[in-house]
C-alpha cells in the first residue's frame, strides 16, 4: 500500500503536487487499486470566494492529476475509487435520491459534477472507475460528529433551523466496508451513494445523538443566525440542505450494512478513536 503525500515522503509514500499537476508516477507502478478521497474540508471555514476556489480546485485538480497519471502507466490499476458527495443532488427536500437522480443546482452540485468528470482520463484508459456520492460519515474520531460532541455533552445540542432537512449518513466502518466491496467487485462502475439505507431529518438526528450521550438536546439554532455567521450560501447548501439519498445500487449488488439504523450507528460511531 502506498500513500500520496505533498512532502516528507516515507518509503511507502508517493510525492505529488495537485496544484502543479505533478506526481511521481513511478511510485504507482504495480498498484492494483486506487482509492482517492482528497479535498479541502467543505465545513472547515467560511466560504469566501478564495476558499470556494480551494474547495473546487483541491478536488478537481487532484483527481485530474491522479487519473491522468494512472492512465499513462505501462500497466494501469484495475480500478479507481474516487470520492464525490451527496452534494451532487443539491437540496431536494423529501425527494428520494438514487444514483439515477439528476444533478442539482448550487455550488456543491457544481463541485461534485466537475469532481466526478475529472476521472475521465482513467475512464478513457479502460480503468474501472467508481465514484462515491458520500453522505456524512459518522465517527467520533473526526468530521462533523467530532465537532458536535462537545456542545452536545454540555447539554447544548440543537437542531438546525426547523430541523426538517433530510440528513444522509453512514458509519465509518460501513463506508470502509463499502469501498472495499466496490473496489473488489470487478463488474461495478459509475456512481454509488455511500449512505445508510435510513436517512433521517436533522431533528431526528439531534434527538438521537442527545439520547446516545444521555444529554438533553432540545435547543434550536435559528436559520437566521446560521446565515449571518456562515453566510447565506454556506448555510443553505451545507447545514440546511436536504438530501434524502438511498444506496440503491449498493443494496441491489448485495452489500450488507453493519449499522442500518441510527441508534446502532451512533453506538458504533461513538466508539471510534
In short:
This protein is an alpha/beta fold and 273 residues long. It is built from ten helices and 15 strands.
Structure overview:
This protein is of the alpha/beta class. The protein has 10 helices and 15 strands. It has helices at 49-71, 107-117, 120-124, 143-153, 172-184, 202-213, 223-230, 232-239, 248-252, 262-270; strands at 3-5, 13-17, 22-23, 33-36, 79-85, 96-97, 128-134, 136-138, 158-160, 166-167, 169-171, 190-194, 200-201, 219-221, 244-245. The strands form 6 sheets. It has a 4-stranded parallel β-sheet, sandwiched between helices. A 3-stranded mixed β-sheet has the order 1-2-3, with helices on one face.
Strand content: 15-25%
Number of helices: 10
Tell me the span between the first and last alpha carbons: 22 Å
CA-based gyration radius: 19 Å
Shape category: globular
Mean pLDDT: 96
The major pleated sheet works out as: 4 strands, parallel
What fraction, in percent, of the residue positions are helical?
25-40%
Q: How many beta strands in the DSSP annotation?
A: 15
Structural class: alpha/beta
SSE order in H/E notation?
A: EEEEHEEHHEEHEEEHEEHEHHEHH
- Unreliable spans are none
Query: How are the strands of the largest sheet arranged?
Result: 4-5-7-12
Topology:
Elements: E1 3-5, E2 13-17, E3 22-23, E4 33-36, H1 49-71, E5 79-85, E6 96-97, H2 107-117, H3 120-124, E7 128-134, E8 136-138, H4 143-153, E9 158-160, E10 166-167, E11 169-171, H5 172-184, E12 190-194, E13 200-201, H6 202-213, E14 219-221, H7 223-230, H8 232-239, E15 244-245, H9 248-252, H10 262-270
Amino acid at each position: 500500500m502506498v500513500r500520496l503525500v505533498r512532502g516528507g515522503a516515507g518509503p511507502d509514500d508517493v510525492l505529488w503536487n495537485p496544484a502543479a499537476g505533478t506526481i511521481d508516477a513511478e511510485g504507482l507502478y504495480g498498484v492494483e487499486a486506487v482509492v482517492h478521497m482528497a479535498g479541502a474540508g467543505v465545513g472547515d471555514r467560511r466560504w469566501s470566494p478564495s476558499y470556494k476556489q480551494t474547495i473546487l480546485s483541491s478536488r478537481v485538480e487532484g483527481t485530474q492529476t491522479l487519473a491522468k497519471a494512472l492512465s499513462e502507466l505501462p500497466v494501469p490499476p484495475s480500478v479507481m475509487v474516487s470520492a464525490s458527495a451527496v452534494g451532487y443532488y443539491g437540496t431536494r427536500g423529501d425527494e428520494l435520491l438514487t444514483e439515477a437522480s439528476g444533478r442539482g443546482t448550487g455550488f456543491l452540485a457544481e463541485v461534485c459534477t466537475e469532481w466526478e468528470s475529472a476521472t475521465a482520463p482513467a475512464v478513457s484508459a479502460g480503468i474501472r472507475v467508481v465514484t462515491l456520492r458520500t453522505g456524512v460519515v459518522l465517527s467520533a474520531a473526526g468530521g462533523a460528529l467530532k465537532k458536535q460532541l462537545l456542545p452536545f455533552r454540555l447539554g447544548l445540542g440543537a437542531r438546525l433551523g426547523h430541523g426538517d432537512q433530510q440528513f444522509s449518513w453512514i458509519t465509518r466502518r460501513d463506508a470502509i466496508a463499502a469501498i472495499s466491496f466496490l473496489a473488489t467487485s470487478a463488474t461495478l462502475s459509475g456512481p454509488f451513494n455511500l449512505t445508510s439505507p435510513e436517512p433521517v431529518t436533522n431533528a431526528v438526528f439531534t434527538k438521537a445523538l442527545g439520547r446516545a450521550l444521555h444529554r438533553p438536546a432540545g435547543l434550536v439554532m435559528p436559520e437566521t443566525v446560521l446565515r449571518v455567521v456562515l453566510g447565506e450560501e454556506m448555510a443553505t447548501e451545507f447545514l440546511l440542505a436536504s438530501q434524502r439519498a438511498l444506496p440503491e445500487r449498493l443494496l441491489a449488488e448485495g452489500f450488507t450494512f453493519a449499522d442500518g439504523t441510527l441508534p446502532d450507528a451512533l453506538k458504533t460511531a461513538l466508539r471510534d478513536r
